[in-house]
Design brief:
By secondary structure, the chain is an alpha/beta fold. Helix content is about 40%, strand content about 20%. It contains seven helices and nine strands; from the N terminus they run H-E-H-E-E-E-H-E-H-E-H-E-E-H-E-H. Helix 1 packs across helix 2.
Length: about 200
């Protein structure tokens, strides 16, 4: 999706900030950060890292972290840069870390609501975060413009800098709101995911 179009849709839907979490790269996030300032929106540096066990959402990263590292090693590299590491959609079969890994590795947060995840697995993620005493994030996981804003992290206060927003997330000041994946979306998603899984040689993304 073109960055300018993402920002236009976000502004129309009264979304004050965005985080572009491309897989294993930060160039789109960096570009968005520059353009968002011009549009009067806040954008924080972010990426979705493919660790060996599954996906990690990373915020406030200085430089990309190499993919395919064990989750514990990836978190060390993220912490060295002062980044915020969040367990992405932990119960998603194709790309989630799984509960055992999230409990074992010291994440700073759990994605409690992902708009491309089923309601059941979002609820499980929310309970996991509560059980571990970790803050929650939320995301649209938007792969098309129409999906932008389906999952949001809502704050009572406004924030003007990436640093202030990351502090607020770490302190659990955000409230996840949004939609989960419905039955029709699940049928399309599973068909697509299985096809991609086969093409990858039965490897996780």
């Amino acid at each position: 999706m073109p960055v300018r179009e993402i920002l236009k849709v976000a502004a129309r839907r009264d979304i004050q900030g965005v985080a572009i979490t491309d897989h294993n790269r930060t160039d789109g996030s960096e570009k968005t950060r520059r353009l968002a300032r011009e549009a009067g929106l806040l954008s924080i540096r972010a990426m979705e890292l493919s660790a060996r066990e599954g996906h990690i959402l990373v915020y406030g990263l200085q430089e990309p972290v190499p993919p395919r590292l064990p989750a514990a090693e990836a978190l060390e590299k993220i912490r060295e840069q002062g980044g915020l590491a969040v367990a992405a959609h932990p119960y998603r079969f194709w790309s989630g870390l799984g509960e055992a890994v999230v409990r074992k590795v010291q994440f700073e947060g759990v994605e409690g609501l992902n708009a491309r995840t089923t309601r059941r697995d979002n609820r499980r993620a929310e309970r996991l975060a509560q059980d571990l005493g970790l803050p929650m994030t939320a995301g649209s996981d938007a792969h098309r413009l129409a999906d932008i804003g389906r999952g949001l992290l809502v704050f009572a206060d406004g924030y003007e800098t990436e640093g202030d927003l990351l502090v607020a997330i770490r302190k659990g000041r955000g409230r996840p709101v949004g939609l989960s994946r419905g039955a029709g979306q699940t049928a399309r998603y599973v068909t697509k995911a299985v096809g991609e899984w086969v093409l990858r040689g039965f490897r996780r993304m």
